[in-house]
């Protein structure tokens, strides 16, 4: 079984970008953390990162074919993208919304998310280890639904 891991805009800069907020781990570290957390339950991870909204939409659509759920850090699109929300609703896969930083302790424009009310799992402010939490909680939820 497989999960899609989606990282949105600017997350390719992890490790370089605002390390005081996001830490020093890189995108490769994040993908490894998620892959290891999933492997413990016999799940694979397909990882995608893009700075282009349409690429993220296409990856979400494709997940319908062969993924049991989605773990997504939509970056700034979290706060702006009805299209991303509609893609997630459209494929009807359970998903985990994850943010590395505590978005609620930051600027007001980060407090609203187009994803929160439709996400099955929320992880906020746990740093990059939050990806492992998100993977674990989503898999437990999927396993609970399956049998
Ligand atoms: C983020 C929080 C967003 O507000 C921001 O635009 C990001 C990263 C996080 O992981 O904390 O790009 O999703």
Distinct bound molecules: 1,3,4-trihydroxy-5-OXO-cyclohexanecarboxylic acid
As for the CATH topology of the domain at 1-27 and 36-67 and 79-91 and 104-122, it is: Rossmann fold
CATH superfamily of the domain at 1-27 and 36-67 and 79-91 and 104-122: Dehydroquinase, class II
Helical residue percent?
25-40%
The CATH level-2 architecture of the domain at 1-27 and 36-67 and 79-91 and 104-122 is identified as 3-Layer(aba) Sandwich
User: Given the C-alpha coordinates, what overall shape results?
Assistant: globular
Give the DSSP E fraction (strand runs of 2 or more residues): 15-25%
- The level 1 CATH classification of the domain at 1-27 and 36-67 and 79-91 and 104-122 is Alpha Beta
Give me the secondary-structure category. alpha/beta
Radius of gyration: 14 Å
Helix-strand string? EHHEHEHEEH
By DSSP, the count of extended strands is: 5
Average pLDDT rating: 96
Straight-line distance between termini: 14 Å
* Count, helices: 5
Detail the poorly predicted runs: none
Strands side by side in the biggest sheet? 2-1-3-4-5
């Amino acid at each position: 079984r497989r999960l899609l891991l989606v990282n949105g805009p600017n997350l390719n800069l992890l490790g370089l970008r605002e390390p005081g907020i996001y830490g020093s781990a890189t995108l490769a570290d994040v993908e490894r953390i998620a892959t290891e957390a999933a492997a413990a339950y016999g799940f694979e991870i397909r990882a995608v990162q893009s700075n282009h909204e349409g690429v993220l939409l296409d990856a979400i659509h494709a997940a319908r074919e062969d993924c049991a759920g989605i773990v997504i850090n939509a970056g700034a699109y979290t706060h702006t993208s009805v299209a991303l929300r509609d893609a997630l609703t459209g494929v009807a896969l359970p998903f985990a919304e994850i943010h590395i930083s505590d978005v609620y302790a930051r600027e007001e424009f980060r407090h609203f998310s187009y994803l929160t009310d439709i996400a099955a799992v929320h992880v906020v402010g746990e740093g990059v280890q939050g990806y492992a939490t998100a993977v674990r909680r989503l898999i437990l939820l999927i396993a609970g639904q399956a049998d």
